[in-house]
């Protein structure tokens, strides 16, 4: 075996420049895979974790039903094909009538960790002359803690103030910034859709890192919002926190069947983002695949050239007793050596780039907000990089190795090498 390895190395060393280029090509492919996978999955995992933490695993609410041809079908039956140019949705009150019973029922379910009521509406916040719209969420802080991890995103951990002081309010960090509020204690005027206004004191900020949530969310006491909206003892949404987030869709269907209300799992609520992430992953892996394929062609070329140039040497080896499988091993080893050293260079380069990216402190503003790049530093990317580099290297070296093993020494000597 050592003599085969010696010959493989000797042939490679005789073509130093081409060998070096092939190793670098594999290294770039491996480094690109490690860095891109780390970046993409880091961002996606962060977003999904935040989304799961911030939003209900399951949301129960009333579903607006707008059937524009309902009146025509009542009068003419189902045998007509109506063309509706305009329709007013039926007046249906947006409330969950038996929410206390539902909370009590599912609080004892072993798969469910907590259930909390929400009264959700829209409102206008005014600070000085600046007005901004926001999504109002009336909560019961005690139940909210069981059904979410809201405390994690409240900057000064003053959620309990909503219980003690019904004139207190917690607003999103970016919403506060848009209003010109940079510290707690400021007074804002809240106007609800029915025209009621109320003066609130900002007691804390909601800072999740998800831009669209931090720009819109406003938390206040459930009873206070019920009073402002003139909807005493009403809620229009229940949120559920479950033990296993992967069971959300199944449990959502079960709860919907049992209660008759519309339910939505977190996967459904974020399906657009999850689909986008899938496409993003496809594009990333296609780019890396293309880099590795180009590297594989480089390996193929160098080994094929070696075979063509070393015909005479191969003929001599076969004459002195080397079998076909030993000839194949010599050139396959060349591919393995290039793939291995390419992987080493790629792994070192990928790790170095990861370290550099993680040390950067820049404001990333977009779908999420962060101080720098969010990386997933999984060891699996290095393992996959090794597997991919070896696979493509062996694949690229196999055909030239096979061709070398089929050379006829007699023909080579007759032709003069």
Put the structure in a nutshell.
By secondary structure, this protein is an alpha+beta fold. The protein has helices spanning 2-13, 16-54, 70-76, 99-107, 141-147, 161-164, 173-179, 211-214, 222-228, 248-259, 266-269, 271-309, 311-319, 324-359, 380-405, 409-414; strands at 58-61, 112-127, 130-139, 168-172, 187-191, 197-206, 217-221, 237-242, 262-265, 363-365, 369-371.
Structural write-up:
With 417 residues, the protein is of the alpha+beta class. It contains 16 helices and 11 strands. It has helices at 2-13, 16-54, 70-76, 99-107, 141-147, 161-164, 173-179, 211-214, 222-228, 248-259, 266-269, 271-309, 311-319, 324-359, 380-405, 409-414; strands at residues 58-61, 112-127, 130-139, 168-172, 187-191, 197-206, 217-221, 237-242, 262-265, 363-365, 369-371. The protein has a 6-stranded mixed β-barrel with strand order 2-3-7-4-6-5, surrounded by 4 helices. β2 and β3 (130-139) form a beta hairpin. α12 (271-309) packs across α14.
List keywords for this structure.
alpha+beta, 6-stranded mixed beta barrel, two-stranded antiparallel sheet, 11 strands
User: How many β strands by DSSP?
Assistant: 11
Mean pLDDT: 83
Could you estimate the helical fraction of the residues in percent? 40-55%
From the N-terminal CA to the C-terminal CA, the straight-line distance is 27 Å
For the report, how would you describe the main beta sheet?
Answer: 6 strands, mixed, barrel
Task: Name the strands of the widest sheet in spatial order.
Answer: 2-3-7-4-6-5
Cα-atom radius of gyration: 33 Å
* SSE series: HHEHHEEHHEHEEHEHEHEHHHHEEHH
How many helices? The count is 16
Overall shape: elongated
Give the helix/strand class: alpha+beta
Approximate strand percentage: 15-25%
Extract low-pLDDT stretches: none
